[in-house]
Specification:
The structure holds two protein chains of two kinds. By secondary structure, chain A is α/β, with parallel strands linked by helices. Chain A contains 15 helices and 15 strands. Chain A has two domains: 28-149 and 286-375, Response regulator (Rossmann fold), CATH 3.40.50.2300; 152-259, 3-Layer(aba) Sandwich (Rossmann fold), CATH 3.40.50.2300. Chain A has helices at residues 3-27, 44-63, 87-99, 111-116, 118-123, 152-167, 180-195, 215-223, 239-248, 263-270, 291-304, 311-314, 316-327, 335-342, 363-366, and strands at residues 30-37, 67-69, 72-82, 104-106, 127-129, 171-177, 199-207, 228-232, 254-256, 278-281, 346-348, 357-361, 371-372, 376-382, 385-392. In chain A, the strands form four sheets. In chain A, strands 2-3-1-4-5 form a five-stranded mixed beta sheet, with helices on both faces. In chain A, strand 8, helix 9 (239-248) and strand 9 form a beta-alpha-beta unit. Chain B is an all-alpha fold. Chain B has one domain (2-214). Helix content of chain B is 74%, strand content 3%. Chain B has eleven helices and two strands; from the N terminus they run H-H-H-H-E-E-H-H-H-H-H-H-H. Chain B has helices at residues 2-29, 36-53, 58-87, 91-113, 138-160, 162-172, 174-179, 184-206, 217-231, 236-256, 264-278; strands spanning 127-130, 134-137. In chain B, helix 1 (2-29) runs parallel beside helix 5 (138-160), helix 1 packs antiparallel against helix 10 (236-256) and helix 5 (138-160) crosses helix 6. Chain B starts with a helix and ends in an 11-residue tail after the last helix. Classes of the chains: A alpha/beta, B mainly alpha. Chains A and B meet through helix 2, strand 7, helix 8, helix 9 and helix 10 of A and helix 1, helix 4, strand 2, helix 9 and helix 10 of B.
Chain lengths: 395, 289
Amino acid sequence: MNRRTLLKSSALAAVASFALLGTAFAENPVLKIGFVGVTSGPAAAWGTSNQRSMETRADWINETGGYDIGGTKYNIEIVPFDDQKDPKRAIAGMEQMAQAGIHYVVGPNVDDGAAAVRPVAEQNGIMYFPYAFPKELYTAPASNAVLGMVANYQSGPAIYKYLMEKNGIKKVAFVAANESDPLSQRDSGSAAAKALGLEVVSDTVTYQVDTTDFTPVLTPVIQAAPDLLVLSGVSPANAPQLIRSAREMGYTGLISTETAQDAAVLQEGAGELANGFISVGGASTPELASDMMKEFVTRYTAKFGEYNDESNTKVYALEYILATIAADPAAIDNVDAFKAKMDTFSAPNPYMKGDAVMQYVGTTSFGQKRQVSVPLVVNEFKDGAFQTMFVAQVD
Amino acid sequence: MEQIIANGLYLGAQYALIALGLTLIFSLMNVLNFAHGQMFVFGGFVTYTVVAKAGLPFVVGLVASAVILAAMGAVAEVFLFRPVIKRSKRDESTMLLAAGVAFFLDAVILLLFGEKQRGVPKILNGVFNWDMRIIMPYDRIFIGFLAVALIVAFIAFMQYSRTGRAMRALAQDRTAAQLMGVDVDRYSMIGFALGAMLAGLVGGLLVAVTGINLGMGGPTSVKAFMMIMIGGAGVISGAIAGGFILGMMESVGLTLLSAYGDITYLVIFASLMVFLAFRPQGLMGKPWG
């Protein structure tokens, strides 16, 4: 083969491969799913784990030929928008989704953002999956929001009750950041603890999210000598610092939170002082994770360099959206069909071992099915990893 | 009470070191460096990478933070702030540039180091406990003393070195210093590098105690501005005083006002407003700038 023939063959092969590639892309229509959440600033970890979970899963689906909806394979495209934890920007993000013809959006991550986007979502026929807890978002007449995780008023009482029975706790203290989400979680947690008969010895201490030394913050709390210290709505950035400060001040009781945490962050920030810390997680512990969950973690790690344990919960929203649309293909651009399907929807949970199912729940808390059923997995941190304490289901 | 004072002194030492870099840059160039907090965060992540990822000693991480941030500051001064200062007479041009640098650094930090909270293993184990009156982990005491030592070293450098004297001359009267033969461009670059280096050093120190995350930059800048407003913008001793005053106010407020909710910063901000109404130049600043 002379040089000219080689060049011609190479050019032909390149043109042919581009043409084939183009055909392959052209074969699958694209289904756009939006994400409106916080991916910058102090709470960036919450939204980033959301967005990266969605992108990892979308790549995986696209790589394996697309998602089957009504006999048609769709490629999934994630359209992200950073709302910077600002309700005004969240509204702008949701409007952008509406203009792009998107009907399904994951987010926002916080209470005020989720409340702010409600009119835009309802007017433009968008179903959205917030990680925010206000009940009015999910209670009629609201109908377009679907809670993407277990709320603290669902997980908190389960944890307190478990610890009362197993560890005999009697006194509890709450500490929260001075922001709307942690404060509302503190209030509902405190009310739930009182309802269970626990003595709340402190629930007024708060802190700024940018605090660099928690010793002054925790001094009055530790002096109240609680059996359980609840870090209400604590961000993964603050959790290790609070745990470390409490332990260094000699606190020996239990510490818990109802938010998801990351084992690597706890290990780096608090080391063995974080042993025994109780938090709510997803389904990645070895006892629960299916092969698909393990592959998701592998793909996420390969794509972004490091896995985030918060994604154990956040992997679910996109899966629920796609599976529900697949169950009734009319829902692809009709959220009324989606809402109708939610009442009867049921599909195997691909991320958990055994016969766990995906279904919509929330009737007890909201009077209608407006919550994804993710397992309430309560974890205990031990030597750099989470161990499952107990598993429960909402509703 | 002893615990409150100890907490306040520890907080004050780290705050003063943060404020020093900011006030140095302001005094030399009249630039409000909104990216100071992001430089602090960047320095923390550099130390984290050197210590936790590369497995090198903590002191190497600190040196790396100092060197990299000094280089970053010098580059920012030469290629960004210097041309803008020369071409624009409006102060807001450099303010907008600094805000732009802050956003840029936020994005770079996210790309390079990710969104997670990071920390390095404790550099000292154990807790100092004086009869339950003062409880303070040894690593915190060590970092506090290190911060004070750095402040003393900085003051000595500014007071006794040729470079420090040149920078002080620049800060007092730029034109007069120029007429006396001070190389304004050179010392402005050194001053900016030194300011950024101090921010990086504090980030490196704190990553061992409280850790570091992407979102700490903005709030750190705000606190640093508060400190130099209290002490007097552009005055070294004012920045130190502002840092210790803010640290002490936080410590007292968080302990004594905790029963009333998080009103500590409300009280601090309200006090600052009243204070500035009576003394806008701060404790040690001059009314004419």
